Amino acid sequence: MAAIAETASKPASRFQFILDRRDVLGAIFVSPAILYVLLLVGVPFLMAVYYSLSAYTIYDPSWDFVGLDNFADILQDPTFQQTLYNTFIFTFGSQILGLILGKFGALVLLRPFPGRKLVRALVILPWAVPVALATVAWQWMFDSLYSVINWTLIALGFITREQAPNWLGTEHLAMLSVIIVNAWRFFPFAIVIFLAGITAVPQDVLDAATVDGAGFWRRNYQIIVPMILPIVAIGLIFGIVFTFTDLSVVFLMTMGGPVGATSVLGFAGFQTGITSGDVSHGAAISLFMLPVLLVVVVFMLRFIRRREI
Amino acid sequence: MSAVLTRDVVKKFDDVPAVNGISLAVPDGEFMVLLGPSGCGKTTFLRIICGLEKQTSGDILIGGAVVNDIPPRARGVAMMFQSYGLYPHFTVRNNIAFPLKTQNVPRAEIEKKVEWASQLLGIGRLLERRPRQLSGGERQRVALARALVREPTALLLDEPLSNLDAKLRASARLEIKQFQQRVGITTIYVTHDQVEAMGMGDRIAVIDQGQVRQVGTPTEIYDDPADRFVATFVGTPPMNIVARNGGYLGFRPENFLPKDMMDDGAHTEFRFRVDRSEYLGSERIVYGAMEGFDPNQVITAKLPPAHVAEESIRPGEWHPFAVRNSALRHFDKDGKRTGRQ
Questions:
Q1: Percent share of chain A, pLDDT over 70
Q2: Which residues 6+ apart lie within 8 Å of B48 measured at CB?
């Protein structure tokens, strides 16, 4: 009794219970994340904005304000127009291919078959393998002399040695190659998204559709796909954002070639700003991702909200 | 003619029988209830009838034709699922129209039939809404409308009331029964709730461990249970079963009364030690043990409180109780019903 009385009568310090307050504790916990974003995303972003409005190069590190001149310059540059166009083709091409592969991969992996667990684990590999390693492997597969793809096509008699395509040396084939590699990297992610979506569709709904007379295609495209569209759209947003800003596959496989046919925004920004040292124009090129991605994200999020069920 | 007939249907999952030889005939227009504990195979059996599961052996006949190899959509049965299985991205109108669209019914006819089904269930004002905007009871009606719009030979219902709260369940029970009588559609209704089974079924098939234990009207099931399982599964509290003469003796708690409440008819007396008594308003449940039987077996008596003298059920004392001979049921050592004494 005495002990209790003693504790109770002791005048409480103002800060004794400060950590019991949810608002204070919450702010303490969340502050590292906010600091991280501010310092490593916010500051570089603002610097990029400033660089893009200045005449800063590594040869002339002056911070002279030039307004929107840099943007006007690159917009008039046909190489940049080509790059912008390439970026869209690269992004949407690999997303569409990845989604199709993902949908069918998910359908296959939903069916029970011997060794399914192993296949499910292996299918994640393209996603888990370091991009540099995977891309170098692909580079050899597309090599002009040692291409295993061409070797197979010749062995199967589809083409002759003279007709063998030069995958990375022809404009359209080079674009197709980087799209294939990127879709190959993306499709395990798409499979996971589709698997999550499809397994979330209640069995009762699928059974009802079967009894109501829906066959495979109708069940898939009138029931399952519309129901999982919101989650697929989220996956697609991630895919678009990551692909649109990506430069690794292009950098490692084609260096933007041949003749700029596979140059994308991230790669061009890096080439101009870092390799060539024209930081202000490089920043301006990179900043072009911002409005495009903003539009994509806003559009997709609104679409999801409308489709929400 | 039987609308739905099954012959010796067996379904095994990896050698474990879920349905173990069910033969059942459901005549045209009948409301048949499949009653059994969870895991007894009743839902599997229903899914076999509608074709969502393929039986390991046995025949399913719908409208007189064997449908073993016919896919669900062509069997002419409609099924309503436990959680209704409504399509969340469709409006109510499109939900109801879906089974017709898959059959390529002309648009004008679809509209007419949707109109008809929604009138029938009183959901005309909900047609443009989506399932998530509906209450539990409304969803159930939409599911029913979707099941009926194809005018099936038989309607299969899988625990349709289990998602409703207790109050709504009572009214939905009445509604489904009245509706079935009005439309006259053959209905097979799966439930584990004996109140639903007794209240709605024209006949009840009691199922346990994949086998039909008894088929009969609610009265037959309650008064003349075919075996100990049926006797103890139906009725709350369940029938008292005591071992006697190498067999079993059974009597319902409401037939086990203080001796002074007996009328003149022939009856059998037991000495009953009351341990505990629960007053439930409309009834009084008394628990205790009977002299000459296993002292650890709890025997229950259900008494009308208004007519029971306090001293005849005083706890801790032995009292003379009795059961009318006509209310005694006899089971052999395997638990099967034997003739009345």
A1: 95
A2: B6, B9, B11, B19, B54, B55, B60
